[in-house]
């Protein structure tokens, strides 16, 4: 169990669709068709995406009325922006509600990650995370059954991301508490006989 406690993390360090579909990251079988679709799909990160992924943040839940200029203004207070892309629908040209912002310095991206999450812009609470496509090995986007998003209460929730981190596996805390309690008892007993 001790090796498991060292390996357990609230956030995914590698993208495994089965584990991402699990509330605590311990599932071994897929529980919905979207997870199966993610496992069976082939996805390769876009080679044409420029910039450094460790300096790039993902901003979502933006209002359709929020302009590129306003987002640029709001996020430039965390540091100098190298690139900015407000993603738009190819057919309609309307914003899809998310953007990618690359800062010149990694520390500026970290600052925006820490401070801008859950900020209100144009009446909507935004979500800020680091770009996953190039940073997380095995990444599968939501359209292929992966991703970290999802609001469906019918079971298609994804875990291990900033918005919905993994919960500790059932019995995890109890086992650690029991081990700690046994160590304390043995220390007390051994100190009495010294």
Automatic annotation (TrEMBL):
SMART domains with a match to the protein in the record: RRM
Cell compartment(s), UniProt: Nucleus
RRM domain: residues covered: 55-133
Alphabetized UniProt keyword annotations: Nucleus, RNA-binding
Species name: Cryptolaemus montrouzieri
Pfam families recorded: RRM_1
This protein's name: U11/U12 small nuclear ribonucleoprotein 35 kDa protein
GO molecular function terms noted in the UniProt entry: RNA binding
């Amino acid at each position: 169990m001790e090796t498991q406690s060292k390996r357990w993390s609230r956030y995914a360090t590698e993208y495994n669709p089965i584990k991402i579909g699990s509330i605590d990251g311990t599932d071994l079988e897929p529980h919905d068709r979207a997870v199966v679709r993610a496992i069976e799909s082939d996805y390769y990160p876009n080679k044409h995406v420029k910039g450094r992924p460790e300096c790039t943040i993902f901003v979502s839940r933006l209002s359709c009325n929020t302009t590129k200029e306003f987002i640029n203004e709001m996020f430039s207070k965390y540091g100098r922006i190298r690139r900015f892309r407000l993603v738009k629908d190819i057919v309609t040209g309307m914003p899809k509600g998310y953007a990618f912002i690359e800062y010149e310095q990694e520390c500026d991206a970290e600052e925006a990650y820490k401070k801008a999450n859950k900020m209100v812009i144009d009446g909507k609470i935004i979500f800020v995370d680091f770009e996953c496509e190039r940073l997380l090995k095995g990444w599968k986007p939501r359209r292929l059954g992966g991703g970290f998003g999802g609001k469906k209460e019918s079971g298609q929730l994804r875990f291990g991301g900033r918005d919905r981190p993994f919960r500790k596996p059932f019995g995890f805390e109890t086992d650690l508490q029991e081990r700690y309690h046994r160590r304390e008892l043995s220390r007390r007993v051994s100190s009495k006989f010294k």
